[in-house]
Amino acid sequence: TEQSLHPISPCCCFMTNQLLHYHVIDKEKSWDEAQKYCREEHTDLAAVRSMADMERLSQDLGNKKAWIGLYREAGSSRMWQWSQPEVQFNESQSNWDTGEPNDVETENCGTVRKTLKWVDLSCKDKKPFICYDGENVLTLWIFAEKHWTDAQDFCRDHHTDLISGAEQLKKLNVVETQLSLSNLFSDGLVFIGLFRDAWQWSDGSNSSFRFWNLNYDDEKNENDMKRCSRTWEEALYYCRHHHHDLVTITSLEEQTWVQEKASKALTPYVWTGLRYTCTLGFWFWVSGEVVRFKNWASPEQVNKCDMSGAMETGGEHKWFKKHDEKKFNFICSPS
């Protein structure tokens, strides 16, 4: 389950000792509250370090959702890691191609060329991929092209994991003639178990194990929804610095798109680019668009200074006038 530094959450899980004995606490708490509770009453929020841990935790949870110890702090940098949790990323053993990684379009996943040089790529691209079976056995999926997360899931289901680490990648030189790598690399790039994120475990462990729901898209989150709470002005500056602007809604189609993003937020409202000018007495979009399409919850509300527009994250996703200093998640325009 994904972490918010603030509001809502169902129950929480934690481990009581190094044997990873999980408990499910059937109380609704925010992530911060869950972490505090687990640290006071037990050890910490649950760390999940392998598929075996994941399966054991899933059995304990059943159909429930619960906080675990995975979180990321606002402004934290993304770090390269290997899909196999026991393989630690070592920068001194990296083998990046010239000019890589260049992060052209939020490229959080790693590929390899026929030269065995590494290239960063969007995780949403579809490429062939390489699974690792352990020991000296490599299974190459030449014709199957998948998104990186789907490839990882496939390798974990049918083999061990995506190929990870410099030592495993060196074995590609040995098996090249046997497995006809020229066919594998005909499209130029192949996914390996290299990825980066800014997530970390509450208990301080350095496990790189991740098991995201395949409907979860971290890149889309980074571009559209910021998982931290900010004032309206802070949100505006963030979007303009890292993306384009706070989101503008000028049609029903755009309203539908934004409310889909808003439904994933972890605050009751999300900031939009809607702003009230006290001097001129009207609402406007910071992108310069005129406010023609409207979805106010209560148009009769009195307009005041220092007010901006926020969309409710549930219900009918109506617009509300909120004071600038309130802190909510926010949505940036994609372009």
TrEMBL record:
Pfam families: Lectin_C (PF00059). Residues 22-132, 131-228, 230-333 form the C-type lectin domain. InterPro entries: C-type_lectin-like, C-type_lectin-like/link_sf, C-type_lectin_CS, CTDL_fold. Keywords: Disulfide bond. CDD domains: CLECT. SUPFAM superfamilies: C-type lectin-like. It comes from the Eukaryota. This is C-type lectin domain-containing protein. The lineage of its organism: Eukaryota, Metazoa, Chordata, Craniata, Vertebrata.
